[in-house]
Specification:
Blueprint (H helix, E strand, L loop, with lengths): L9 E3 L12 E8 L1 H12 L2 E5 L9 E8 L1 H8 L5 E6 L2 E6 L12 E8 L10 E4 L5 E3 L5 E7 L2 E8 L6 E7 L3 E4 L2 E2 L7 H7 L3 E2 L5 H13 L8 E3 L5 E6 L4 E6 L3 E5 L4 E13 L2 E12 L5 H15 L3 H9 L8 E6 L12 E2 L1 H4 E3 L4 E3 L4 E10 L2 H6 L23 E8 L4 E3 L11 E5 H4 L20
Parallel strand pairs: 3-6, 7-13, 7-14
Antiparallel strand pairs: 1-3, 2-4, 5-6, 7-10, 8-9, 8-11, 11-12, 15-17, 16-19, 17-18, 18-20, 19-20, 20-21, 22-23, 22-26, 24-25, 25-28, 26-27, 27-29
Length: 468
């Protein structure tokens, strides 16, 4: 029984270290007080618990069973509904009361409008206008006018696209709401394919080679995850290829946007390819994407699709960014380290970093900055076997994990990704989007998860209601 004189006493439980703090724990409590559970956790993990005993729910007892999970995952489940929160400080776990969240003002959404003209300055109807990588977009009317409203604040690329014309792309940032006007004059496209073909007679664009090139292109674009098998290009005839045997370079060109159906995620994607080049193991491609929901789904199918979208999002690069900005890396299952090399790293020998070590607030934006490479471990989901079998992405992290018969020498473990900055600090807007999306290189798991596992940048698992 605890007495009232402990009202302001900070209780420190001292237990000697009994196991590796990063190891999974297995516990079974039935009708126990929180103080007893904390004492048992100390003995299991070696962490010291610090808390004001009067903060613990009076008379409440807890029943919980876990098997081989990390301590922060256990605490997240244990403290649900108690009004308590936990934080790590060196060798301690501090338990505090979680104040009610402040009233958050509604985000100031904004709108964009304007006119689209052709090469003769006449209105152009049916131009595709959208925010790159999102489900937000529209098309120009008979007078060449367009209007997009209810846009969340943030940094976006506004894309104008029409067959036979060059894409127009404008970068815009808006955090204060209101209206933006952006007019655009479309420029006729110049087909560069013939010029490429006459540069060298070593370059082949033979029709008989097209199926092989197309297969390579799909694998590079979609990846090798299980979702990739459910991705289809419905207009392959718009894609042309050039191959230089001397340099072993494959280049792709399109005469129109690529239409993609991702059945696993119920997305229809319009992909505006800017460039695609594979030279040996070096792959580089870029373009703009417009996402649309496929609404032809039963309630059962919607449930399955929502789960697949959420699974693809959790642990992803987009999830990491949002978690980083709200100081939630550890709670969301991310562990971050700095490493000098991307070659077969061992994060267990590295010192863990925290949000303040790599992120600086600049008033109207954030800056991500670190030396060498950032190694990110996602602890709440294991690697896919397909990732390990892929070879190219996994070999960056692991050595000798596949034998000569392509059999795995190791079981799937935690998902490991690496980041490299190409031009110094990277600017991230208040909405969590990288302003220069090509200023970061990814390796490992994030590099392996490609378009087949991609959700729109405005995706939120809490509000995935299949609205366009």
């Amino acid at each position: 029984m605890r007495h009232s004189f402990l009202l302001l006493l900070l209780l420190n439980v001292f237990i000697s270290f009994s196991q590796n703090k990063n190891a999974g724990i297995t516990l079974n409590f039935e009708n126990e007080e929180l103080s007893v559970i904390f004492d048992s956790l100390s003995a299991k993990t070696g962490y010291f618990f610090s808390y004001n005993s009067d903060l613990l729910p009076s008379g409440n007892r807890f029943t919980i069973t876990t098997k081989d999970i990390l301590i922060d995952q256990f605490l997240s489940e244990l403290l649900v509904g108690t009004g308590l929160k936990y934080s790590f400080f060196k060798e301690q776990i501090i338990i505090n009361y979680e104040s009610p969240p402040p009233v958050v003002k509604r985000k100031k959404v904004f709108n964009i409008s304007g006119n689209v003209l052709d090469e003769n300055s006449d209105p152009l109807v049916g131009v595709n206008i959208f925010l790159d990588g999102t489900t937000i977009g529209t098309s120009s009317d008979a007078e060449g006018k367009y209007f997009i409203d209810k846009i969340p604040p943030g940094n976006y690329n506004l894309v104008f696209s029409y067959i036979g014309y060059e894409n127009g792309v404008y970068n815009l940032t808006e955090n204060n709401g209101g209206s933006r006007i952006q007019d655009h004059n479309m420029i006729l496209s110049v087909d560069q394919l013939d010029e490429i073909e006459v540069v060298s007679n070593r370059i082949s664009n033979d029709v008989k080679d097209w199926p092989l090139y197309f297969t390579l292109f799909k694998n590079d674009l979609f990846g090798t995850s299980k979702n990739a098998k459910q991705c289809t290009i419905t207009n392959p005839e718009v894609i042309n290829f050039s191959y230089d045997e001397t340099s072993n370079k494959l280049t792709a060109h399109t005469s129109a946007p690529i239409n993609i159906v991702n059945k696993a995620m119920a997305y229809q994607i319009t992909y505006f390819l800017e460039s695609f080049e594979r030279k040996g193991n070096d792959l580089r491609y870029r373009g703009q994407m417009k996402f649309q929901n496929n609404l032809d789904l039963t309630n059962h199918s919607k449930h399955m699709v929502k789960n697949e979208r959420k699974k693809s999002y959790l642990g992803s690069w987009n999830h990491f960014k949002k978690s980083l900005l709200r100081n939630g890396l550890r709670k969301d299952g991310f562990r971050v380290y700095e490493t000098r090399s991307i070659d077969k790293v061992n994060y267990k020998k590295l010192e863990e970093l925290h949000e303040g070590d790599i992120l600086v607030f600049k008033g109207d934006h954030w800056e991500l900055e670190f030396n060498n490479y950032l190694l990110v471990v996602y602890t709440k989901e294991k690697e896919s076997i397909n990732f390990l079998l892929d070879g190219q992405s996994a070999s960056v992290i692991y050595g000798d994990y596949i034998d000569e018969n392509k059999m795995l020498n190791r079981a799937p473990g935690k998902q490991i990704s690496l980041l490299g900055l190409l031009h110094g600090p990277v600017r991230i807007d208040l909405n969590g989007q990288v302003v220069d999306r090509f200023a970061i290189s990814t390796y490992g798991y994030w590099s392996w998860e490609r378009l087949a596992n991609l959700v729109p940048i405005n995706y939120d698992p809490k509000f995935d209601n299949f609205n366009n």
